[in-house]
Amino acid sequence: xxxxxxxxxxxxxxxxxxxxxxxxxxxxxxxxxxxxxxxxxxxxxxxxxxxxxxxxxxxxxxxxxxx
Length: 67
What we know:
Elements: E1 15-19, H1 20-24, H2 33-41, E2 46-50, E3 55-58
Antiparallel strand pairs: 1-2, 2-3
């Protein structure tokens, strides 16, 4: 049908929210959630370390353009 598009693929992922600076710098420690929270409140970019070991960059939502 013209003008329609497929719905976005939706998935559920379980894991740990991490601040990217500490995670990429290998300073991230699972026993320091307060440090992560502090960095997140300061605006540090965040990611999700999936339970299976994958890393997901989390970005602010935005509109999907029509094609």
